[in-house]
Amino acid sequence: MKRIAIFVDGSNFAAACNTVGLRPDYDKIVAYFRAEGDVVGCYYFTALPPKEVHSPLRQVVDRLTYNGWRLVTKETKTYGTFTKGNMDIEIVVQAFRMCEHIDDIILFSGDGDFRSMVEEVQSRGVRVHVVSVLTRDEKNMTSDELRRQVDSFIDLADIKDKIMLGAKSGPSLSFLKNRSV
Question: Whole-model pTM?
Answer without folding.
Answer: 0.88
